[in-house]
Structure formats: structure tokens, C-alpha cells
Amino acid sequence: MIKSWMVIGGIALLLAIIGGSIVRPKGVQWFRRLRRPQWLTFEPLIPFIWIFVFACGVWSAVLVWEQDPGSSRTWALMAGYLLLELAILAYNPTMLIGQSLKLGTIVGAVGFVIGLILTIGVASVSSTAAWLLLPFLIWSPIGTYTTWAMLKLNPTEA
């Protein structure tokens, strides 16, 4: 029997792979040449932070699913998790293909709002699942602020 964590984790992983494949080397090269704030000393840790954030999101979704599998409310929350992941994964392609830090800042802010709404909806189903979304709610504004700070250092890259 296939476990819920396998399905939810598999979908999350598949979407991350597809999202990562959209990014082109030209956009990555553009991003690498941009100036960064002096305080951005943790940039090498960002991929690991996102892995942790995604793992917490998957675990949160599994807990919600297992509370009431297949109900319309659970499916609606699963759609919220999917929307949140798509918003998160849209950040890099949108910013790198558009070569626009402003677009990245907007996508980051929209993702945070989606995550906040999802967390509020999840809290009534499982407080643990809501707490597992906290790493995203903490990290997302940091990433969005970092992109905004880079925009101020690279005003021609709006």
C-alpha cells in the first residue's frame, strides 16, 4: 500500500525537479553577477534551508491528510499546499527568466501571503501541521527582503 507521505513527498519532489528544470543558464549567470548586501553571508546555506522548509511543508500536508483523508476540506487544504509550492517554485524561474529582482520580490511576497492563509486554515485541523509551516513563514520574508535589498543595490535590474 502506498503511504500518504510517499504520494505527497513524491508530488513535491516532482514539482521541484520540474521547477528547477525551467531555469536557464543565462538567468543564473545574470543573477550571479548581481551585487549582494554585505550581511548576506548565509547564501551557501540557502539550498539546505529550502530543503528543510519543503520537508516541513510535506510533513505538515501529511498530518493534515491523515486527519481526514479524502474529505472536501482536506482536498481544499491540499490545493492550498500545492498553490504554496507552486508560488515558492515560481520565484526562481520568474526572476531569472524575466531578469528582474522586482518580479522576484513580488513573487516572494505573494508566496508569504499564500503561506500565511494556508497556515491559518491548517491550524484548525492540526496545530502541529500549522507549526510545521512556521519555517516557511520565517524564511520567506527573509528571502523576500534579501531580494528587495539586492534590488536597491542593483537598481537597473528591476
Description:
By secondary structure, this protein is mainly alpha-helical. The chain is about 80% helix and about 0% strand. The chain contains 7 helices and no strands. Helix 3 (about 45-65) packs antiparallel against helix 4 (about 70-100). The protein is elongated and about 50 Å long. The N and C termini lie far apart (about 50 Å). About 25% of the residues are buried. The model has no long low-confidence stretch (mean pLDDT about 95). This is TspO protein. Belongs to the TspO/BZRP family. It comes from Leptolyngbya sp. NK1-12. It is a multi-pass membrane protein. One of its GO terms (biological process) is tetrapyrrole metabolic process.
Average pLDDT confidence is: 95
Uncertain segments of ≥5 residues (pLDDT<50)?
none
Instruction: Round the Cα radius of gyration to an integer and report it.
Output: 16 Å
Q: How are helices and strands ordered from N to C?
A: HHHHHHH
Beta-strand proportion: under 5%
Shape label: elongated
Q: What about the largest sheet?
A: none
Number of strands: 0
What features would you highlight for this structure?
elongated, 158 residues, mainly alpha, 7 helices, single chain
Topology:
Blueprint: H1 4-22, H2 25-32, H3 46-67, H4 72-98, H5 101-123, H6 127-132, H7 134-153
Give a brief outline of the structure.
The chain is mostly helical and 158 residues long. The chain is 79% helix and 0% strand.
